[in-house]
Amino acid sequence: MSVNQQAHTGPPYGQPQPAYQRYQQPGYGGQQMPGVPHSQYGVYNGPMPGYQQPAPPQGYFPSLGLPSKGSPVSLNSDTSSLAPNFIGPLRTPPTSGAPPPTSGALLPVGQPAYNQFGQGDVQNGIPASAVQMQRPSVSQPFIPGSTPTSISQLSSFQQYGPSPTGAQQLTNHMAGMTIGSVPTSAAPPAGVGYGPSTSVPPASGSFTATGSGLYTPYSSSQGPRPASMTHGLPPTSLSQGVPLAQPAFSGPPLSMQRLPSQGSGYAPPPSSTGIGPSNYPSTTGAPRPSTMQSPPLSGQALAGLPASQPNHLASPPPPQQAMSGPHPGPPMTGLQGPPPPSTHPSQPGYQIQQNGSFGQVRGPQPNYGGAYPGTSNYGSQPGPPPPPKRLDPDSIPSPQLNELPPQQKPRHRIDPDAIPSPIQVIEDDRNNRGSEPFVTGVRGQVPPLVTTNFLVKDQGNASPRYIRCTSYNIPCTSDMAKQSQVPLAAVIKPLAMLPTEETPPYLVDHGESGPIRCNRCKAYMCPFMQFIEGGRRFQCCFCSCVTEVPPHYFQHLDHTGKRVDFYDRPELSLGSYEFLATVDYCKNNKFPDPPAFIFMIDVSYNAVKSGLVRLICEELKSLLDYLPRGGNLEESAIRVGFVTYNKVLHFYNVKSSLAQPQMMVVSDVADMFVPLLDGFLVNVNESRAVITSLLDQIPEMFADTRETEMVFAPVIQAGLDALKAAECAGKLFIFHTSLPIAEAPGKLKNRDDKKLINTDKEKTLFQPQTNFYSNLAKDCVAQGCCVDLFLFPNQYLDVATLGVVTYQTGGSIYKYSYFQLETDQERFLNDLRRDVQKEVGFDAVMRVRTSTGIRATDFFGAFYMSNTTDVELAGLDCDKTITVEFKHDDKLSEDSGALLQCALLYTSSAGQRRLRIHNLSLNCCTQLADLYRNCETDTLINYLAKYAYRGVLNNPVKTVRDALINQCAQILACYRKNCASPSSAGQLILPECMKLLPVYLNCVLKSDVLQPGPEVSTDDRAYIRQLVTSMDVAETNVFFYPRLLPLTKVDVDNDALPAAIRNSEERLSKGDMYLLENGLNIFVWVGVNVQQGLIQNLFGVSSFSQISNTMSTLPILENPFSKKVRSIMDMLQAQRSRYMKLIIVKQEDKFEMLFKHFLVEDKSMSGGASYVDFLCHMHKEIRQLLS
Ligand SMILES: [Zn+2]
Predict the structure, then answer these.
(1) Distance 1026 CA to ligand 1 centre (A)
(2) pLDDT of the residue at 767
């Protein structure tokens, strides 16, 4: 498939609102949504002026390349005379703009004269003195106040952990929680608010009536609203209706006034004046014909794609060379699947493995066999005979030896069908809880499993899509909590996308006065605040402090003590909502500018030769039309910039007035600076012709490069400096191929050493090899510079170190080992499209407040902390989660329960400063049984995995594994001792809510991070470690226990998926095909005896032996079976945040080992226990604890 076809094919772009619709998960959590009319849940729908979008258009014109305020360029102008040649005649230079960029050599890209650099500026360019520029000392002051921080001064900065340094400007707004002495008795508003759902719908009417709400459906950062939200809202009414409806706040919200469209000296483009939903470019995928002036293509010769070049695989350095490094093993099984056979013909890692070496035989696991005293101990304890068939749901039927046929005794101590089955638990939950919406009005209610499709109706608590807890009933005392060993944690996904049937959070605008908050603990107004004294004051539900109600917020109470505008105000009646932040919530008391995206492309030999550079450039040409728009904006406010690099950096001036882009080379990477301000970050539509020209020319410019030495840290530094100069937050998209060994800051060495595995030094493999990147990350966080990293390694490139900045800035990391255009481009492009389009909150700070008695003590995820309470995120996207652990600091009461409030302050992609609030109320218990009845094992596993994966940074892996086993044994032993009815010690009794804890825990224990097989690379372990740290509960669930579907059971006439089966080889039939997915990969396993007709229908070949296991997509065949299987795959892909790689595995093929790695109920080749063995081991551990 050619790149051009890829770039313009429809589906991702074929919809009017791609950023939203594309990511609607067709089956949230597993299967098709039940067809519930969404109007039923649109609580605040309806024609309510109060909910109109508060006229965002007028203040949100794209910022037109704000001319670098406060950055007068004082440059040597020896080359500035070149500039007029390239400035178009039609535009006046911005009045406040900098003079034409001159500190770098101005190179009219694509001009004939440029050809002399086209061979690669490094080796054979023009004399270095003319092209490559050393940093002139005089340019130092040209970015006042944003001079790059001297990184070496920060070398003591602590990695990955809270640091005492760095006072944060926003701290005063997210002030520390004060622990009040009296637990609040502010029970959740009684009665009506928690009644049947019918009490809520009137809300929609009352919004209109009172006119008090300025909140709008939260759409600005979610993309277009569902249709039910938009009807009856003529765009023209927006700007008038909203301010007028709220007399207390005349005029539009403050933030709307701060971006006069003419502020930059530019006139807005004509197309921007009539902004309104109806003006959306309804073009479905056609990239804006009106502005697509055909660019002056000097690089017109975009002829053959690298993919079609026969030599692109054989070009030096040959892949074999890469493979002959210190770690020649094939790419890890867990992520990348088999390397392309053509590239890596020998698979040493697989050949040592023999088929069928595990998973067939059940019996004592080598790891545990010694400790496990054998069958005689199990179930044959002296004492009262166990009840034959207990009806207690907590009881696991554990067949006794004498119940088994004699021939099974030696090997089958436990019937595998009698131990808890994940499939059954998932199925039961779907059947029991999938049909009714989950209404959040009840405190401490355990939500359905993440694998169940259900709708959520917000009645005062945050949706489980935003917050899930390990337990919804918290022990009242610290002693109880310690006794149970159940960790108390919440997995929070503050910007989660919701299904279209659910209403995104409303935006509340309190005008200049800002959100209502408790005077003492600064908690935000929420449904649990108690209004007293006729409504003149409220008592804080978190700290009990009493705060005056501001006059403009006063409202009378009804006879139940509830404000009469309860249903009119999301902050009084809903679990999740947003506040428009005032200027007090902004850095330097100044509203932020819209963020910027900077694309930074590795143009080394490898990147060019693999076709990657051309692929990226082609894709960006169309992808730039789909930058996040932030709601109703006609076009995205995000500005873009471009950098290419090898061991020097090339900046591009793509100012709209230029006829051709200009390149500036910075070779002094040791002291990075940005050679141009005006023209570097631009509006896509204004500069489209220049950008297109640039993207056409980049692949040509570097087509003949031979550069293989790369820098990395200076690239981040340059992006950071550019954002600093532009005084905005933003995101860097870095496309990088290799270990940065060129002489530059952040230079790395290859320190991979698999011999360290299972030694005390194994932890060093997960630690960055230098503090340099942590220090850089800290600077990035301070600026709101989020770094997304796309890696294309052919060998070790030290993910553990390169990923530090990504990790600490809340960015995403993607890895495509042994990238090949044919097999990997679809996956990469899908990931890139989603990554660019998805909504991101920038420059964010998250604080979790709790009611008296517990407090947040520990945090897991991709972020930075400079104190113990504020989670700082340069960027936070809709897929990222932050896990928070809580500890007691006082007693809790059953009456009050426990409350959480997560507040996220962030800048939207439109540049709007917002606060997103999520509230959750939990029960508290004095009986352990209540705790164990209200736990959620999937969330528990999410927490435990993150806890363990962090532990490997500082502890031997075995220590981490043992600690996990011990903690879970204690959890289960506590239950057995305190909650289960008396029975034989030989009987294993698990709490109903935790009966999957052993099987899931075993999956974590034998995951690639904690127990790697020989084929798993060091980079892959670091990569997985980083990914899991930000995963939500649904992702960890399927990652650790993959979904396995029998394809011959597919009903082509039915939308439903076939019933999943357990992940064990003995469940596979030779006559069937199976699909297995874990969120990163999709396998299709084909049994040797599959009917020929099925093979023909799915693969288009006539026999098993003809099936190619190198295909990266299934062939598109016109038969029901093929269509159905492909539609299932599409559905699964849409559910996951990353595009999964398809790997075809034939039974008894050498690649089958890759597949068997994911049959997690079986013994693994790396020594991981089978489920049965591990359950026996856990049982023994529990009994030891009890004796
Ligand atoms: Zn308070």
Answers:
(1) 35
(2) 94
